[in-house]
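Continuing the batch. This is chain 6 of the set; chains 1 through 5 are on the previous pages. Same settings as before, nothing changed between runs. Recording input and output for traceability.
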Amino acid sequence: MQPIIIGVACLVAGALVAFLVLRSMGSARIQEADRAVERAQERAEQIVSDADRKAESARKEAILEAKEEILQLRQASEQEDKQRKRELRDLENRVMQREESLDRRNETLDKREHQLSSQQGQLDRRARDLDELMERQTSELERISALSTEEAREELLERVRRDSVREEAQILRDSEARVRAESDKLAREVISCAIQRCAADEANEITVTSVHIPSDDLKGRIIGREGRNIRTFEQVSGVSLVIDDTPETVVLSSFDPVRRETARVALENLIVDGRIHPARIEEMYKKAETLVRQRVREAGEQAAYDMGIHDLDPDVVDILGALKYRASYGQNVLQHSKEVAQLCGLMATELGADRVSAVRAGLLHDIGKAIDHNVEGPHAVIGADFARRHGERPEIVHAIEAHHADVEPDTVLDVLVQAADAISAARPGSRRESAEAYVKRLEKLEAISNAHEGVERTYAMQAGRELHVMVKPEQISDAEATVLAHDIATQIEDEMEYPGQVRVVVIRESRAVDVAK
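Output for chain 6:
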């Protein structure tokens, strides 16, 4: 019995111990679960906080992007407004110039009408004098001769007829000389007015292009293993790539300016990219070719838009834009063509001719220079054939072909294009002298004048064609100012070489200043 009791007691004690142990383990698990829940809550709060920060950052970035877009739209609107204002100002200027031209023509007509009236009055007076003379001679002949009145009249009329023929011939010669002088003066006024009203930039380009590279180490990568990179580049582009001892520079050479520009863009993109190998060269050149083709089209469209021409054939626009990369005698051909178009339009307006046709012919007159390296013959003839194939009017085609006298000029439009082309080519800084030589010539003119005693300051004006000399009035008298102008002009003739003439203007000014208190 006792062993049973002891066994039961042991069993109870074991159960109690087991219960306590299980209870202790459950409490630990509950605490562990509580801690897990707390950690989960903290993690959730951290995630919510991070999400809030990201949302705030995204909101700020969206606000900044919106502000930048608003600023860009505002700038675009302001630029468009400025462009419209410039167009309005240009239109107003053209209207004012047209009114001034009409006023000048009216004044010329009034002067001619006055001259004709004066000549008519002189003829009337001469006719009255002749009538009186005839009456006196008739009376005298009847008195001293045995001629009848009818016979005397016939003889007198014959004498008067001979005298009238001589006087008429003299009047015609005088009128012809006067008309020629006025025509020559009007032509000079038209050309000088067009030159003064037309301003254009000049740009110098050559048949090679230098490309800067970050370091000379890159030259080896451009050449490639056994020259494979440079060979691929030249085969793909058709441009010679010259790599010599010039530091940090490689040279591209080609007579095709568009191809040379495409090669330059491709090479610069390869240098920036850093991956130079045959496959990459071909890829970059195709991208550059697309980009340059787009730039050519944009340049042609911009030139046509600037000149107010909106119906050019797309192929003509492309060829016109290619002139941006073409130079002739150091002068950018596209800029030269735009200047010729402006001069043609201005002179046509002064003469009352068709301004639209003049501007169109002037803009397209050198279009053959964009393709003369691919087609044999003079660029004027090549350009005329190209314009004829693309639907240009016969008078425009003939003006293009005649601007270098490859065919005989026979219209006013032909002569206008010839004159404008010659004026643009002869502008200082265009093709007859470099910008550096032009500046040196102006400095030399001012230095010659400033070296004379009594000269206060000197200004070279009108592209070096006029020299304004300010003298000190207390040292130079009016008579001495005349001598000084002659001396400066003589020294310029002896020491300098220059196109045209240089007009020396000596200005002597005295001022008396007082203050009322």
